[in-house]
Write a structure and sequence with these properties.
Helices cover 50% and strands 0% of the residues. The chain has 213 residues and is an all-alpha fold. The radius of gyration is 27 Å and the shape is globular.
């Protein structure tokens, strides 16, 4: 083993540009933050009959509304949505039929072409004649000007389903619709607006829904 001391590292005098003041930077833009998640605290505290009535604006199954209301309080919105999903998955065929009976035709945004409205009305009528209930589809992530095309494509893609397969598909769309409506409902409670009516287009939080309701 070598007994020589380690080779010393050279020490360089500081260079001029090392000691010069760093150029001043402009102000840093704040990081983008997603909107806060609505807190279900106020929804947790309303009477059971009010909670059930509000939940029925999200899904027209009385069994679903009673079950979600009965499991309050919820610590946060994700827990509430998880409970809503679980209750939707457990709906019997009669419960799904009840919820579907409470839905109405898809509402297109203002300014939709007459041809689109005519085609959509004809497609809805044909679907309802075949399956015995209105066509439901969740369009929460669809731009308003694409709503008609998405609905028509949905009807075409599900047209060849047998009644049982279509009931399953419709039940899942009801579940997705309930999630979006429930999120907006909790937002309106958190804002102090209380429950709102899903049958209208404009909501307490200023959002709009272009889905079957």
């Amino acid at each position: 083993m070598s007994l020589l001391p380690p080779h010393p590292q050279p020490i360089h005098p500081p260079r001029a540009h090392d000691t010069a003041a760093s150029p001043r930077r402009g102000p840093t833009l704040p990081a983008h933050r997603p909107p806060p998640t609505p807190d279900p605290h106020r929804f947790n505290t309303v009477p059971a009959d009010e909670a059930e009535g509000a939940l029925l604006t999200c899904c027209r199954s009385l069994r679903w509304a009673r079950r979600v209301a009965a499991h309050r309080p919820y610590p946060d919105l994700p827990a509430l949505l998880a409970a809503a999903d679980e209750a939707a998955y457990d709906l019997a065929p009669a419960d799904v039929a009840e919820a579907l009976a409470g839905e109405s035709l898809t509402v297109l945004p203002d300014g939709a072409y007459l041809a689109a409205q005519t085609a959509l009305s004809a497609a809805h009528a044909a679907y309802e004649s075949r399956f015995g209930h209105v066509f439901v589809i969740c369009l929460d992530d669809v731009a308003p000007d694409e709503a008609a095309d998405r609905v028509l494509a949905g009807i075409r893609s599900r047209w060849n389903n047998d009644p049982e397969d279509e009931r399953v598909a419709a039940a899942d769309e009801l579940r997705r619709l309930a999630r979006g409506r429930l999120t907006r409902l909790i937002g309106s409670y958190a804002a102090g607006a209380g429950q709102y009516t899903v049958g209208g287009v404009e909501y307490a939080d200023g959002t709009q829904e272009y889905t079957a309701r």
